[in-house]
Fold this protein.
Amino acid sequence: MKYSDVTHFGSDEEVIKNLRFMRQSIDSLAEEMRRTLERSELNLVLHNLLAATAMELGNLVEYYHRGSTIKAWCTRNLFELNLIVRYVLQSSDNLKSWVAQAANDEIEIWEGFTE
């Protein structure tokens, strides 16, 4: 696959329209996962990562006209979410490792607030 196979240059309005469509599609997928799939650690993690992805797409739409810095931030977050999904899908050990690291990160954040 080439870059030109997945890119389309258009107006800002077209880009925003496509971002909204992607967000709605991801929201729908996350809701369908929640309703239809067995509750498991993997499914919960994937649901939460989808929700985070939808949120970042929403941020891109909301702040699209505020310059390249916010676009770069959201794009970096989307890239990181993509890497995390790929990582946790590789193996159950990776899933366990990522969940443990995410929990540890949350603890450190809360400890930072209380110090």
